[in-house]
């Protein structure tokens, strides 16, 4: 019914069913994972009026009770989602919605778990995922523009010389680096105040 994907690894479709409505994936070497994608395989839809709450659990080396963090949801209308797990913090979260069976399916202390709990859509709507799991929704063009401007400024700055080091060259026009820096800082300030200003 579900699949789990991590970049550079084979797709996992071998979720352990720990209850009639709960499924768990083991995630080895979770320290090397930045993002995880959870998706429906398309073979079995959710029952009408239900969806899947996606949770993440760090292994607990101290042997205490496990802490699960709600990442988000998948539904028949939104059958896949990507979550950022590299910013999650161990020990933060809520109770274990998967029971002791999930703990017994964990292979080793270096294995985290991703769980899908089938729940009513109205219950899912009332739950609040951890904010750090959300993948940035910054416009890809805006992100590219920021990176490009950083690169341009760093490249131009690498040619900086003081006035004493300058040699006269009538065919060359010089722009003070402070002028470029001032423009760049102004651009960043305007972007932080209104990320869509460049669309106007």
Automatic annotation (TrEMBL):
Any one GO molecular-function label of the UniProt entry: nuclear import signal receptor activity
Keywords: Cytoplasm, Nucleus, Protein transport, Transport
Cellular component GO terms, alphabetical: cytosol; nucleus
Places the protein is found: Cytoplasm; Cytoplasm, Cytosol; Nucleus
Secretion signal span: none
Keyword Nucleus set for record: yes
Residue ranges occupied by any Hikeshi-like N-terminal domain in the UniProt entry: 6-133
Biological process, per Gene Ontology: cellular response to heat; protein import into nucleus
Main location, first listed in the record: cytoplasm
Domain of life: Eukaryota
Domain Hikeshi-like C-terminal: 140-200
Function: Acts as a specific nuclear import carrier for HSP70 proteins following heat-shock stress: acts by mediating the nucleoporin-dependent translocation of ATP-bound HSP70 proteins into the nucleus. HSP70 proteins import is required to protect cells from heat shock damages. Does not translocate ADP-bound HSP70 proteins into the nucleus.
Subunit organization: Forms an asymmetric homodimer; required for binding and nuclear import of HSP70 proteins. Interacts with ATP-bound HSP70 proteins.
Recorded family membership: Belongs to the OPI10 family.
Name of the protein in question: Protein Hikeshi
Taxonomic source organism: Pagothenia borchgrevinki
Lineage, uppermost ranks: Eukaryota, Metazoa, Chordata, Craniata, Vertebrata
């Amino acid at each position: 019914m579900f699949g789990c994907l991590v970049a550079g690894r084979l797709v996992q479709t071998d979720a352990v069913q720990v209850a009639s409505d709960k499924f768990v994936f083991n995630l080895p070497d979770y320290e090397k994972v930045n993002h995880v994608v959870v998706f429906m395989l398309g073979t079995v839809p959710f029952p009408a009026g239900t969806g899947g709450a996606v949770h993440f659990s760090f292994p607990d080396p101290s042997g205490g009770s496990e802490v699960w963090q709600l990442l988000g949801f998948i539904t028949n209308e939104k059958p896949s989602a990507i979550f950022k797990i590299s910013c999650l913090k161990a020990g933060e979260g809520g109770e274990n919605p998967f029971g002791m069976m999930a703990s017994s399916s964990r292979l080793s202390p270096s294995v985290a778990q991703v769980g899908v709990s089938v729940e009513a859509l109205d219950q899912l709507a009332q739950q609040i995922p951890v904010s750090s799991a959300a993948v940035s929704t910054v416009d890809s063009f805006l992100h590219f523009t920021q990176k490009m401007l950083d690169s341009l400024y760093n490249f131009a700055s690498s040619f900086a010389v003081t006035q004493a080091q300058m040699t006269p060259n009538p065919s060359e026009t010089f722009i003070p680096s402070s002028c470029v820096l001032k423009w760049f800082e102004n651009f960043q300030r305007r972007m932080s105040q209104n990320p869509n200003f460049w669309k106007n």
